[in-house]
Design a protein that fits this description.
With about 180 residues, this protein is mostly helical. Helices cover about 60% and strands about 5% of the residues. A two-stranded antiparallel sheet has the order 1-2. The chain is globular, with a radius of gyration of 15 Å. The mean pLDDT is about 90.
């Protein structure tokens, strides 16, 4: 399967954001730092939800290392990471866990809904551009209370990693960014 250009753009953006120290490689320290930042973004979230999200960052890293570290150097290069978009089935379980944990983090009340302030806080903690975060939230079709369903966001995260997808809400995250 040949990934869409949108999928390639999405993967390149995620790599740049996950490279928290900016050294051009993904390493465990990047995922630890990212996990800490994202967990701190919603202080009202339940401790169990925070632990679940931290664990999902750890599992995501472990999966990347196991599946992509072709040269065994303990870090993932941009070229190694790009193969995530070519073989999504190798990452479905880690992406599912991450999607569910991140979306749940945005629902500190546990009512199945994510309000814009929590969504924005989490997405900014990951490193996405504010204008793109707001556009993404709007694309998910918030209700009159400016909330989206947890399941809608989790599904949107899953779609973000699918190589055959284009024209999805997640494409708003790459809008206006130089490649």
């Amino acid at each position: 399967m040949t990934p869409t250009s949108e999928a390639t753009d999405r993967v390149q953006l995620v790599f740049s954001l996950f490279d928290a120290d900016g050294n051009g490689y993904l390493e465990q320290a990047d995922f630890d730092l990212m996990g800490d930042r994202v967990v701190a973004a919603v202080p009202a979230a339940d401790d169990a939800v925070k632990e679940r999200l931290s664990a999902s960052f750890g599992r995501y890293w472990d999966t990347l290392l196991t599946e992509l570290d072709a040269n065994g150097d303990g870090r993932i290069s941009p070229e190694e990471f790009t193969s995530v978009v070519l073989n999504p089935q190798r990452f479905d379980s880690a992406v599912d866990e991450f999607a569910e944990a991140l979306a749940a983090m945005g629902d500190p009340e546990g009512d199945g809904l994510v309000a814009r302030p929590e969504f924005v806080a989490l997405m900014l903690a990951i490193g996405f551009e504010r204008r793109n975060v707001d556009t993404l939230f709007d694309a998910f079709g918030p209700d009159e209370g400016d909330r989206i369903r947890v399941a809608t966001w989790a599904d949107g995260i899953r779609d973000y990693y699918r190589p055959e997808k284009s024209g999805i809400p997640g494409d708003h995250l790459t809008a206006g960014l130089s490649g």
